[in-house]
Design a protein that fits this description.
- Helix 1 crosses helix 3 and helix 2 packs across helix 4.
- 26% of the residues are buried.
- The chain has 251 residues and is α+β, with helices and mostly antiparallel strands.
- It starts with a helix and ends in a 7-residue tail after the last strand.
- 30% of the residues lie in helices and 31% in strands.
- Strand 8 and strand 9 form a beta hairpin.
- It is built from eight helices and ten strands.
- The chain is elongated and about 70 Å long.
Length: 251
């Protein structure tokens, strides 16, 4: 796509909504990205071209591009130009969501690979996070989730068999552990611990990451009616995923 075509699309997307001009420029660019008219890694029109065609000041264009860069929509390379960024998927940090639904809502395709489903004897650490006795039988599953065939999450999960006795009988190629567990033990409480780690070699290979790439790790413990249901370690490639949290203030 030429810069001229891209600018023409932007002019059509600008509209005349009652908002500051730089905000209108930003929203028009975001709409082009979200609708797929401007593709990842595509070079966007220069500031001079935008100023000339949109009839706004260079200061306005500079502010819009600068803010879009800080918000992750664009990447600016000194001496080269400005490009549409590779948009990362995201997961809700303060909520418990179904990864399959998150991916589908972005208009992408979810698939998964079940690497293991078995019953094990809880070691002291595993027993502690599930509120059970050491040596007690617990369930373990290991699943890699994909977005458009790209691995985005490794789900390493321990499950309390007293709460979900039929867990190992489920076909997690057709439904996610989240979906099944919400059916048999609706969530009443949860806790997240988030940290950045370097994956070990097996994790890096499963997630198809390079050696220098870090991961986001969410340790998630959930309860139903005061009983621990599950403890999961959710590992995300740091360059492909981000966390999203919302909150309401009081002023």
């Amino acid at each position: 796509m030429t810069e001229q075509t891209a600018v023409s699309q932007l002019v059509n997307a600008m509209g005349d909504q009652p908002a500051p001009i730089y905000q209108r420029v930003k929203q028009a660019i975001i709409s082009q990205i979200n609708e797929g008219a401007w593709k990842p890694r595509q070079r966007v029109p220069s500031e001079s071209e935008l100023v000339a065609r949109l009839g706004v000041s260079r200061m306005t264009i500079n502010r819009a591009l600068r803010e879009l860069t800080s918000e992750g929509y664009l990447v600016r390379m000194q001496g080269v130009g400005t490009f549409v960024a590779e948009m990362k998927g995201y997961t809700a940090m303060l909520e418990v969501h179904n990864i399959a639904e998150e991916i589908t809502q972005r208009g992408h395709r979810h698939s998964c690979r079940v690497l293991g489903m078995n019953e094990i004897q809880a070691d002291p650490a595993q027993a502690a996070v599930l509120g059970l006795a050491t040596g007690q039988a617990i369930f373990h599953s290991l699943i890699v989730h994909y977005e458009n065939d790209v691995p985005v999450q490794m789900e390493d999960r321990l499950v309390n068999p007293l709460v979900a006795p039929d867990y190992l009988a489920q076909d997690f190629m057709t439904l996610t552990p989240y979906t099944y567990l919400m059916q048999v033990a609706p969530l009443t409480a949860g806790e997240h611990i988030v940290e950045a780690i370097m994956p070990d070699t097996p994790q890096r290979e499963l997630l198809e990451m390079n050696a220098a790439e870090p991961c986001l790790l969410i340790r998630r413990q959930t309860w139903s009616d005061n009983r621990v249901v599950t403890y999961a370690r959710l590992l995300y490639p740091g360059t492909r995923y981000k966390l999203l949290g919302r909150f309401k203030g009081h002023g």
